[in-house]
DNA sequence: TAGATTGTTAATCGATTAACAATC
DNA sequence: TAGATTGTTAATCGATTAACAATC
């Protein structure tokens, strides 16, 4: 128990993910080193922010030189856990579900769609990306048996809470919710929303503000 | 110039959007009044937060009674600007673009896809939601002519910056970027990212932390 | 060595929450 | 009136940034 367990901000985790993408780009260009300044410019954050974020996890740089692109890249991958393969359950294979399933960054980043569920009889049993779509009734059993920890919800708002309950029941720990609905889950569950309405309404708000404040 | 122009936090705008959805739900149930407490519970925030957020824009409640659902709903819609019709340009009509185009909440919330662009010869000229897909070369002219202010980028990472530049050139003020790439735009442009990789990596990070901190 | 850039502390900034008088 | 709940100020909390000694 000598470990001091500092809580790491969510925003730091998100920025690490952005740094990682920048580092991947630099690695393609065979760049040797990168400074917190350059990385901050890429991510759109203050260089001190970059150093602070990294400092949560150790000392990865060399004073006067910056960071080794290759080393920092694999360090951050390790920190984010993308050096391991996470199984993901996809709930709902409508337009959005299909688009998500087709996303190439998926496997590349160490995520693997391991199970797909839908209520539509016409879809059940048919393969998507080599995986047969299962009926919703199988959800609890499959997720439990396969030890899946991450779920993506891509279904209509009405059933989102119900499905979330089932997922939690089955041992899911992280939920990425694309349904336009707020859902409630136990505190130990990590829940993130991707919400087109909210995004668009934020933009709309900005436009109304331009008028009011003349930015 | 008697107006004191307080800068309103982005997070407030986002929460307003969430309150609005909650109010729409309550309106369906013909609920008369709602308290900051109930609204906060729905949105997952502190009741003081709700009152603070609203207080930026005026006094909408009645002490001892709470807020009129109907009135607050239309007030927030007015604040967010969803009581007017915003034209949106959709760039890229691949899997994701199609899923976005199919999203029903679009018109409902006062957004209207007014133009769609793609580079793929096979898609150009064909209608999506009654709108003919245009070649990318038309982007500047169409966006300028139609006075479109909001753009959604749903294309591969490589071309995202190039397209963003063209959009800014054409007078776009808000960009919602689904491409897995950082882009840079002038400061007066509102830029928001929706990034599946970052979302997933945040979840992955949480899972690795559970091990480390045993949450 | 001189120049560059890290790691880290202290200062600043902004957002959230608690508390309570006002008032329905 | 008593109870409930707002609107708002003050206190707290946490995240960002500035600054600089350490050091390559």
Care to describe what's here?
Two copies of one chain form a homodimer. Chain A is α/β, with parallel strands linked by helices. In chain A, 46% of the residues lie in helices and 19% in strands. Chain A contains nine helices and ten strands. Chain A has helices spanning 10-28, 36-43, 47-55, 69-80, 95-102, 105-108, 139-146, 157-169, 196-213, and strands at 33-34, 61-62, 66-68, 86-91, 111-118, 127-128, 131-135, 150-153, 174-177, 190-193. In chain A, the strands form two sheets. The first copy, chain A, has a seven-stranded mixed sheet with strand order 6-7-5-4-8-9-10, sandwiched between helices. In chain A, strand 8 (150-153), helix 8 and strand 9 form a beta-alpha-beta unit. In chain A, helix 1 packs across helix 2 (36-43) and helix 2 crosses helix 3 (47-55). The termini of chain A are far apart. The structure holds a DNA duplex (24 and 24 nucleotides).
